[in-house]
Design brief:
This protein has 17 helices and 6 strands. The chain is mainly alpha-helical. Helix 2 runs antiparallel to helix 3, helix 3 packs antiparallel against helix 4 and helix 3 packs across helix 11. 42% of the residues are buried.
């Protein structure tokens, strides 16, 4: 249900004082990023965003990385029963490493920028993500313009007119992605291969040397891993195809499906708005009200390093994951949607969030019938 535990402390738009826009060479308005001034602003409001540690996060990263390597070794050398058990574990460990890399990219994982950049690049490798490409589109673009059509880049809902004017194949794909099962495919097909491996001027404006270096790092990692698996697999009675399947492909697909669902849930709910312009976003407090707090059981929150505490993350991206649970209490302002995850609730969200009427500010189904009130004015949810 939607809860209003505290009132907003300010009428200023979160992020407006911390991000500045520029025109990139391809004509898009991009965001430079969040600066420490905004982190201090949020810290002054009670969000613990600046207390970043060093030794404990490094040890945590080393533990998760070691667990991932061990899980892959089991997939290579283990029997069928160990393999079946280790495949989902390896996928979840890739998610955990990715969240660590995500925090490091926000410079929130440790207090050392150099350590964050090193850990972030390593942590992103099993997920096959180039660090600087993620930093550009996630930190600068998504966090600067979340839920704004044509400025944010993932899970942007089509308007009824856009859907009607789309080609047959595009309409079919859109329908699939808005289905509960199709949600799991979206990131793998539409985002990851286009934006997260090879740098492209179309998305970056200008490709820099660091983009190519990070891309080469990911491709080299993939080549080395596949080579090691191909050499080691036959020694334990597994074919090259089999060991590539269980040791690389299936864990990656599990990561991709879980991550696709996570970012869908972060910003999709029938009481959560999308915006047609930056002006609407500012007026509607979109930085916070464009995010959803989905409550999961304790074990899920631990395994995901609090990645679903998303309102707090958008309020202050430099808040370490080990402070997000406390920071989330400050982020539940009036109008924020909070709901406890159930499969029934998930199916309901998918059924009601098909198209978005940007003029009326409300979600529609594929029959163009309203499925919720005006999101910015919503007073209840699950």
């Amino acid at each position: 249900m939607l809860r209003s535990s505290i009132q907003p402390r300010s009428h200023s738009t979160p992020g407006a004082a911390a991000a500045r826009a520029l025109e990139s060479t391809d004509g898009r308005t991009e965001v430079i990023g969040w600066d420490m001034a905004y982190a201090r602003l949020i810290a002054g409001r009670g969000v613990a965003s600046s207390e970043r540690k060093l030794a404990i996060p490094i040890l945590r990263f080393a533990a998760v990385l070691s667990a991932y390597v061990t899980s892959v070794a089991i997939l290579v050398a283990g029997n069928i029963y160990l393999t079946v058990a280790a495949v989902p574990v390896a996928g979840i460990l890739i998610v955990m490493l990715f969240v660590i890399g995500h925090d490091a990219c926000h410079q929130s994982f440790t207090r050392s920028r150099w350590v964050n950049n090193v850990i972030g690049r390593i942590a992103f490798l099993p997920a096959l993500h180039a660090y600087s490409l993620w930093e550009h589109e996630h930190n600068r673009r998504h966090h600067g313009f979340n839920n704004i059509r044509n400025l944010d880049y993932a899970w942007i809902p089509l308007s009824p007119r856009e859907f009607r004017n789309a080609g047959v194949i595009d309409r079919l794909k859109y329908r699939v992605y808005r289905d509960p099962g199709g949600v799991l495919l979206y990131y793998l097909i539409e985002i990851w291969p286009r934006r997260k491996i090879i740098p492209r001027n179309k998305f970056l404006g200008r490709v820099r040397a660091v983009h190519w270096v990070d891309s080469a790092l990911v491709l080299s990692f993939l080549a080395v891993c596949l080579t090691i698996l191909a050499v080691a697999g036959p020694r334990f009675g597994k074919s090259v195809a089999e060991v590539w399947l269980v040791g690389a492909l299936l864990p990656f697909l599990i990561f991709s499906a879980l991550f696709s669902a996570a970012i869908y849930l972060h910003h999709t709910h029938y009481d959560v708005p999308w915006y047609d312009s930056i002006e609407q976003w500012k007026k509607g407090n979109g930085s916070v009200l464009g995010t959803v707090h989905v409550e999961f059981p304790w074990i899920v929150r631990v395994a995901s390093f609090n990645i679903m505490e998303h309102n707090a993350h958008h309020l202050a991206p430099t808040t370490p994951h080990y402070h997000l649970a406390a920071a989330q209490k400050d982020a539940i302002v009036e109008g924020v949607v909070v709901w406890t995850f159930t499969m029934r609730g998930y199916f309901d969200v998918c059924a009601r969030c098909k198209l978005f009427d940007y003029e009326a500010a409300r979600w529609l189904d594929f029959h163009e019938q309203p499925t919720g009130g005006k999101p910015a004015m919503a007073t209840h949810g699950h």
